[in-house]
Structure formats: structure tokens, C-alpha cells
């Protein structure tokens, strides 16, 4: 791992003597202007290239290039988003990759939350990826309203601010087996469980002209138990692992008042519980983006941090 220490991405039985290592992210070599990157969701777009979002900057995606061993970030490119009207994307938090007919699309989700000042953070945006230059983006008009109307269990949460138990989406993944977008909820959250919302979309519509709510199928809410957790847990990111077919989850506190530590877990579709991994994050870490990748036949995990850093496990 590039970072302070590395922890094996497995599970601990609790029967053997065990001292976990601590993951402390390495700062990015650059800033977003004068401030650190507020990095959230992240996806691979090449063997050494990854794209992440800055939830304080909805005008661009950010592409980082690693060294040959995918350990050290060599540079970060700002990829400006074009085609979006003002307010089409606020507070971007979730990011996933969808491959359709030889093309790569990146889908960005806002937190879909209501701020304390009554502002609505809306946005589900499709970006047509290309290796260089600006990136053309399209907003799916009315997605938040559609979701609340079609998933009644979220209607009340949609009226509340995140710290009052309101809707707060921080993770987004594409499930190629189900042709569905999978949203990971930071809130609302209940003790010892996390929630995801699965929204089917026809694969051709994901990359074609039909980027509208008419292309979406009925959403389904799924609640999953988190072992050894008695407090409210939120999903800070979710990523589909193409190698195993599982989902990798970044778990953390649901509201700013909670004190739940950050952890990594795996969830298999159809399972009623998360497999919590032996990954301990340093107290200064704020991991909010995770993805898996392979290099030289070795499977690895990349985590990006809300405080402007990264770690390769």
C-alpha cells in the first residue's frame, strides 16, 4: 500500500492474536486551486488512471495518473464538465462507470439531500468519457423527485436535513448483472444496518438517447445487517467488484454527530449481512471513495479521502 501502513483485506476470526495495521492516506501532490481536494467517489478509467469527484466542485471531474506500480500519484488533471445548466449538479458524492457498446460512461450522483438552509441538492448526471479534453455531461431532469415518488419509504426522509435523519446519498455503483444503478445511503440509517436502493435501467438507455426518468424501472430498497455494530451506520461509498461480483462498501458515521469509525465491508447481492473486513483507518482519515482494480495479476483497492489524500491497499 502507498500510505502509512497496510492492512490485509480479509476477515479476522477473533481466535488468533491479531494487531491490525492502520491505514493513513497519503496527501495528493496537488490541490484544487488553493484548497485540498474534497475527494469522494472514484473509478478506474485505465490501467494507471482513475477519475474522482470533488464534492465542493460540481463543474469538473478529476483524473489522476499513477506511477508504473500504481502507488504514487504523478499528476491530477481537471476534466471540465460541459453541457450542464446552472444547478444541474449540486454536492456530487457518488460516481460509477458504465460500459455500453464499446463506450465508457461515468454517472455522477449528488447527495440528493435537503440542506439545513432548505436548498435541494439534486442531480443524476451522465458523462461521456474520453481520454483527453473537456467531458460532455447530461443531467437526468427530475431524478430526485422521481425517486421520492417511486420509493415511498424515502418520502419523509426527503423532507429532512441529513443530520435530522434525512435522505443523504454518498455511494453509487453499477451492477452489470442486474442492469441497475445501486445507490448507497448514508442516511436515513438504522442501528446495525445499512441501506441501498437499486434502480434498474436498460443498458442501451444508459448509453443511448434515453437518459430520462422514463428509462428507469421500479426502485427497490434493500436493508443489510452490519455485524458487531449497534449504532447507526452509513454507506460512504459503494463499488462493484467485477472480479468477484460483490460490492465493496465504505462504512462510517451516518450524521455529523455520530462517532462510528470508518470500515470496509463486502456485500453479496441476496445476502442479509455485510462481511466486515479487517481494515482500520487512522483517526485523521475521512475515506469517501473506493474502487477495486488489478495490476500484474494482483487485486488491489484504491481509497480516496475527503481531506485530500489516497491509499492503495
Secondary structure blueprint with pairings:
Elements (H helix, E strand, L loop, with lengths): L21 E2 L2 E2 L11 E6 L4 E6 L2 E10 L6 E10 L9 E9 L2 E8 L13 E5 L6 E5 L3 H8 L17 E8 L4 E8 L5 E8 L2 H5 L12 E6 L7 E8 L6 E7 L9 E5 L7 E2 L3 E2 L5 E9 L2 E8 L3 E4 L1
Parallel strand pairs: 1-19, 6-10
Antiparallel strand pairs: 2-22, 3-4, 4-5, 5-6, 7-8, 8-9, 9-10, 11-12, 12-13, 13-14, 15-16, 16-17, 17-18, 20-21, 21-22
Helix content: under 10%
Largest sheet, spatial ordering of strands: 3-4-5-6-10-9-8-7
Gyration radius, rounded: 18 Å
Question: pLDDT below 50 for ≥5 consecutive residues: which ranges?
Answer: 1-18
Largest sheet: 8 strands, mixed
- Count of helices? 2
Distance between the termini: 5 Å
Strand content: 35-45%
Mean pLDDT: 90
Shape: globular
Q: What structural class do you assign from the helix and strand content?
A: mainly beta
Q: What is the quaternary state of this protein?
A: single chain
Amino acid at each position: 500500500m502507498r500510505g502509512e501502513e497496510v492492512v490485509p483485506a480479509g476477515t479476522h476470526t477473533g481466535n488468533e492474536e491479531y494487531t491490525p495495521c492502520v491505514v493513513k492516506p497519503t496527501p495528493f501532490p496537488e490541490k484544487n486551486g488553493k484548497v485540498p481536494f474534497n475527494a469522494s467517489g472514484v473509478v478506474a478509467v485505465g490501467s494507471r488512471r482513475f477519475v474522482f469527484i470533488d464534492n465542493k466542485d460540481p463543474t469538473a471531474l478529476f483524473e489522476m495518473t499513477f506511477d508504473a506500480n500504481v502507488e504514487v500519484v504523478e499528476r491530477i488533471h481537471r476534466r471540465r464538465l460541459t453541457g450542464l445548466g446552472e444547478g444541474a449538479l449540486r454536492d456530487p458524492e457518488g460516481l460509477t462507470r458504465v460500459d455500453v457498446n464499446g463506450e465508457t460512461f461515468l454517472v455522477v450522483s449528488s447527495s440528493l439531500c435537503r440542506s439545513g438552509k432548505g436548498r435541494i441538492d439534486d442531480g443524476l448526471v451522465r458523462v461521456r468519457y474520453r481520454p483527453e479534453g473537456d467531458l460532455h455531461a447530461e443531467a437526468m431532469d427530475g431524478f430526485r423527485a422521481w425517486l421520492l415518488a417511486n420509493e415511498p419509504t424515502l418520502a419523509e426522509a426527503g423532507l429532512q436535513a441529513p443530520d435530522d435523519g434525512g435522505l443523504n446519498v454518498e455511494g453509487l455503483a453499477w451492477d452489470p448483472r442486474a442492469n441497475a444503478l445501486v445507490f448507497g445511503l448514508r442516511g436515513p440509517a438504522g442501528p446495525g444496518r445499512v441501506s441501498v436502493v437499486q434502480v434498474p435501467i436498460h443498458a442501451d438507455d444508459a448509453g443511448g438517447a434515453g437518459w430520462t426518468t422514463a428509462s428507469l424501472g421500479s426502485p427497490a430498497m434493500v436493508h443489510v445487517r452490519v455485524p458487531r455494530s449497534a449504532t447507526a451506520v452509513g454507506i460512504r461509498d459503494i463499488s462493484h467488484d467485477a472480479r468477484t461480483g460483490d460490492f465493496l462498501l465504505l462504512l462510517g458515521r451516518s450524521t455529523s454527530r455520530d462517532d462510528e469509525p470508518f470500515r470496509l465491508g463486502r456485500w453479496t447481492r441476496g445476502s442479509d449481512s455485510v462481511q466486515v473486513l479487517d481494515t482500520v483507518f487512522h483517526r485523521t482519515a475521512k475515506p469517501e471513495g473506493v474502487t477495486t482494480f488489478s495490476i500484474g495479476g494482483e487485486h488491489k483497492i484504491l481509497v480516496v479521502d475527503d481531506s485530500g489524500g489516497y491509499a492503495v491497499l
